[in-house]
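Sat 14:20. Reprocessing the chain from the morning session after the first attempt stalled halfway. Input below, unchanged.
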Amino acid sequence: MRNSDKERRRILLVEDHEDAWEIAAYILEEYKLFHARDFAEGLRLARRRYFDLYILDNWLPDRSGVELCRAIREFDPHTPILFYSAAAYESDKREALRAGAQEYFVKPVIFDGLKQTVAHLISAAREKAFEARRAAMDAVREELAIQRMETAELRENARENRPRAKEKKLRVRAQIAFLAAGGARGDFAREWPSVRSEEARSALTSDVDEHEHQKIGEAERQPV
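Finished this time. C-alpha cells:
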C-alpha cells in the first residue's frame, strides 16, 4: 500500500523539459515530486519548502545546475543532491561533486539504477537523523536553562509575546544543532514537533501559568 502524502519523502526536480518530468514521475512514483523549470524557481522552492532530495539538471535556461547546487548548499548543507543531466563531460561531473552533490547521472540512464540511487541517498540521510535529533534536544535543554535565568522584570515586560518568541528561538537553536550534526532539513521539519512536545512546551508555558496564578491571588486579596 502506498504511503500517504504526509509520509512520502519529498523530491525537488529542477528540469526544463516536460518529458523528463514525466519520466521522473513514473520512475519515482512512490515519492512526492515537485517540479521547477529553472534556477530561479528551483532556488525559490528550495528556500521556501523542505525536501529530502534534490535532482538537478546541469543545463538550465537561466543558470547552471552547479550554480544552483552551490546556492542550495549555502542554507541546506546536508540534504542529498543528485544530478541527472545530458552534460556528460568529466569536468561537469567533477564540478558538480565539488559543489556539494552526492551523485551525477548522465542521461539517458537505466531506470532501476536511478531508482536505487534515489532510495540509497534518502535512506543514508535518514540514518543521520537520530544523532542529529539528540543534538537538537541538547540544544533545546541548553536554551531552556538560559531562559530560566531571565530576571523577573524581563519576564513581566515580555509576558504577552514570550511563549511564541521563546518557541521560535528554540526552533532556530535546535535546527542549527540538527544541521551541524549531519541532519537534513526535511528530517528536522518532521522531528521538531516531537522534540518540543513535552519538555519544551511545558517550560514555555510554565512561566505564563505562574504569572496568571499570581494575578488571581492578588485579585482575591483585594478588599470588596
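Residues 129-221 form one domain.
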